[in-house]
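pasting for the record
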Amino acid sequence: MMSKKWIAFLVIVFAVGALLSGCSSTTGGKEQVVKIWQGSEPEILDPGKSTGVPEANYELALFEGLVVLDAKDMPAPAAAEKWEVSPDGLKYTFHLRANAKWSNGEPLTAHDFEYAWKRILSPELAAEYAYMLFPIKGAENYNSKKGPVEEVGIKAIDDKTLEVALDKPTAYFLALATHHSFYPVNKKIVEANGDKWASDIKTLIGNGPFKVSNWVHSSKLEMVKNDQYWDKDKVKVSKLEWALLEANTTALSMFENNQLDYVYEPPMAEAERLKKENKLSVGKYLGTYYYELNNKKAPFDNPKVRKALALAIDRESLAKTVLKGIHKPADAWIPFGFTDSVTGKDFREEAGGYFKTDIAEAKKLLAEAGYPEGQGLPPITLIYNTSDNHKAIAETIQEMWKKNLGVTIEIQNQEWKVYIQNRKSGNFHMARAGWIGDYADPMTFADYFMTNGGNNHGKYSNIAYDKLIETAQTSNDSKVRMQAMRDAEKIFIEDMGSIPIYFYGHPYCIKANLKGFIKSATSLVNWKEAYFEK
């Protein structure tokens, strides 16, 4: 006899399936529809304001920057057909494609990029990713209200030429420019509709290979081929249908019932079975899963407490039992996958790890902090966005802390938008978090915890760390850059500003006949040239 829970689960599956009805993958006719589960309802689809991985993937289909990551995770021409870099590395001149347009048919111009980039830098927008543009001359001063917008080094020379002046040489600027914070937005649309422009399909105008055709909140997001796109002949798919679900268990069930073609991160509890049935793929991923600690709230204003909790986690056991061997235990902050530009080897392998499980030391640190055996610790709540995977990890670590240190914590799941808002506002003690590299240079991790970093919600701060990062950001000497980032990482781990848990591998399920997509190590899937093989 079916349990009530099982019946309820089937109702959810069939209900969502009905909403996606008529979207079975078409391989024989003209229409090809790809059905995707990338995660929950997007917080916002404004590339200047969004911060999450799901949003970045939706936006990659709707917008296009000057450059885009190719199959080797290298910057390649996109809205710009070519560019020149001055000998001193301080000026980039981008030439836009003559036939580049917005999805409403209006020409895409260099002025659109100038507007979008200056918009994200404006203090009024308070964009978390504004710092991505700080290598540009005058950008940081404008963002921090120390200089006028007129001094920002972004200028449309004419409709198809954008000139960018940098404050200092930045070896990884093109890699930075692949990020969604560098996408254009349509000035007329944005200014006429305010914050609502990116949530209404009538005004959500982009310049990418697809455009939004339907958005049923908390249910589905549909995109159709953009006939105004400059490279539309390479777009084989007629529609992308994104299921907006919280639970990856539901998404996996839909995948196995042929209601989805791609599932981002299926439940880890199913990993072994999916491997045996050849349904699971594991891709490269420049990512670290960690517990963000609010350094401004007790007890995490004490580095000894932070480090005690970090040393009391048995990551090897976690990796084997809960993570099913898909992810690697993290013994540092910067993950595997970045190239050391001096040696050509992996940055993480060159630097090695910085800590390991040490229960005795953890107990000692906790006692020195004034909380022997966890006694007297203020209440601690760990928040995480709703996910069976996050729950399993949290419960396992919760038990480790109880067993190894006598520390009791409460765990609390939150719907995505609530979780994001609480992190942004600092309304948390400890929060489940994951950082995926935005570009293919270790700096995308190294600068994350700078004192005024846009994503540094835990408010970690160390002047010595900041100075080393500034050295790495501005030096043209690769040896100096790499060493400065290693030294900064050591300081962060010594302070244990947050607790690294594991380095990501990227498990996903995809139909065997779905080809042509590009999956980057920065968590993005580019569906532009995807197709179903007959």
